[in-house]
Write a structure and sequence with these properties.
Elements lengths: L1 E6 L4 E10 L2 E11 L1 H5 L6 H23 L12 E2 L2 E3 L7 E7 L3 H18 L3 E5 H7 L19 E6 L4 E8 L2 E7 L5 H11 L6 H11 L39 H13 L7 H26 L4 E5 L6 H14 L4 E3 L11 H12 L18
Parallel strand pairs: 1-6, 6-7, 8-11, 11-12
Antiparallel strand pairs: 1-2, 2-3, 4-5, 8-9, 9-10
Helix pairs in contact: 2-3, 4-10, 5-6, 5-7, 5-8, 6-8, 8-9
The protein binds 5'-O-[(R)-(carboxyoxy)(hydroxy)phosphoryl]adenosine and zinc ion (ZN).
The site of zinc ion (ZN) has 5 residues, from helix 4.
């Protein structure tokens, strides 16, 4: 089965074609037009600007995904007529379209959904609306380089930590299509915490990669830390010490806004903070990671799961990937641990198509007349 995925929830215009068979998903193309450079100057995503950019990019991106996947046109193999040199008017050999229906920015979602509806009508193929968070989770089901390794495949039930710019949630996945939220953030998402922390430290947007890069400097043997300065792993008086909010709470909820405020006050108190950006970034990143790992391991124990999965843009964070793998190995050695390949962590359409493939197997199609977007769509 061949699925076209479309993703426009936030600031990436993305289209991908995947081929599914049994539990195997092969990515034939994965095209992403990122708007990061456009939004950088505003320090964050401007919804109106994002939607306009999606309108400009959506058809060229879909066309490129189809071309790169070499999905033969039905009927006309080489010379299918196109609309303005974009998107063939003769249907390509695609069985269904999987498209983000929410959560996300409403006008951005509408561009992807409107396009999916139109193509479904023109090509006479079904549409599968996908929850963006479910899409992130399904990045774990795209074939891995080490697909033969049992540790890289999911056995249900699984606990999934989904961490992105808009969401931080722990979910219990008992099987395909059976995903229940067991905890979520009460305020800022983990990615949002990275972005806001980076802004305070004068680093660029998006903040996650910027903080990770600064934090990594502290591990470089050539890095000269200011005198006696250490992070909270040491007992030194000068250590930077940020809180781990809700780390000991009994539930599986998160809160990151207090951490952000703690960073703000630490910087206000410290006249020389500009000389210690890598150290602040390292401690801030570690505070987020400590909470995420602690809650995920606790949930895995409580629900007696077989697999821990990581998903979402923040799952691109190398320290989180490594430390979560180590914590699982040490504390729950019988469990599997899966995480998406790096290119499927931040927003992409291959993950939407992957989620769509499993829904298509259950015939979960929606007639184009009934398709809607919902900026607050829940799992
Ligand atoms: O999933 P995603 O692409 O978009 C949303 O659904 O929100 O996630 C974007 C978020 C941003 O907040 C970004 O700062 C964060 O993922 N991110 C990272 C890293 N790469 C992206 N956070 C920490 N470390 C990274 N390497
Ligand atoms: Zn996302």
């Amino acid at each position: 089965m061949t699925i076209l995925g479309i993703e426009t929830s936030c600031d990436e215009t993305a289209a991908a074609v995947i081929k599914g068979g049994g539990d195997t998903i092969e990515v034939l193309s994965n095209i992403i037009a990122s708007q990061i450079e456009i939004h950088k100057k505003y320090g964050g995503v401007v919804p109106e600007v994002a939607a306009r950019e999606h309108v400009l990019k959506i058809l060229p991106v879909i066309n490129e995904a189809i071309e790169q996947a070499s999905v033969n046109r039905r009927g006309m193999i080489n010379h299918a007529p196109t609309i303005n040199n974009h998107v063939p008017t003769i249907a390509p050999a695609i069985d269904a379209i999987a498209v983000a229906a929410g959560p996300g920015l409403i006008t951005s979602l509408m561009v992807g959904m409107g396009t999916a509806k139109t193509l479904a009508y023109a090509w006479d193929i079904p549409v599968i609306p996908i929850n963006h968070i479910e899409g992130h989770i399904y990045a774990n089901f795209i074939n891995k380089e080490r697909a033969d390794d049992r540790q890289q495949t999911t056995e249900f039930p699984a606990v999934v930590l989904t961490v992105s710019g808009g969401h931080t949630l722990l979910a219990l996945m008992r099987g395909h299509g059976d995903i229940k939220t067991i905890g979520q953030t009460r305020d800022d998402a983990a990615g949002e915490a990275f972005d806001k922390g980076a802004k305070m430290l004068g680093l660029g947007y998006p903040g996650g990669p910027a903080i990770a890069a600064e934090a990594a400097k502290t591990l470089n043997p050539k890095h000269q830390a200011p005198n006696k300065l250490q992070t909270s792993n040491s007992n030194d008086q000068n250590k930077i010490n940020l809180p781990r909010p809700m780390i000991n709470s009994k539930n599986f909820d998160f809160s990151f806004s207090g951490l952000k405020t703690a960073l703000l006050y630490s910087l206000k108190k410290d006249k020389k903070w500009k000389n210690k950006i890598p150290e602040y970034a390292c401690e801030y990143q570690q505070a987020i990671i400590d909470v995420l790992i602690s809650k995920t391991i606790k949930a895995a124990k409580e629900y007696n799961v077989s697999t821990i999965m990581l998903a979402g843009g923040v799952a691109a964070n190398e320290e989180l990937r490594v430390q979560m793998a180590e914590a699982t190995k040490k504390q729950l050695p019988d469990l599997r641990f899966t995480l998406p390949d790096l290119r499927f962590t931040t927003d992409n359409a291959a993950m939407m198509a992957a989620a769509g493939y499993f829904k298509a197997q259950r015939q979960e199609f929606t007639p184009w007349q009934d398709l809607k977007v919902d900026c607050n769509l829940e799992l």
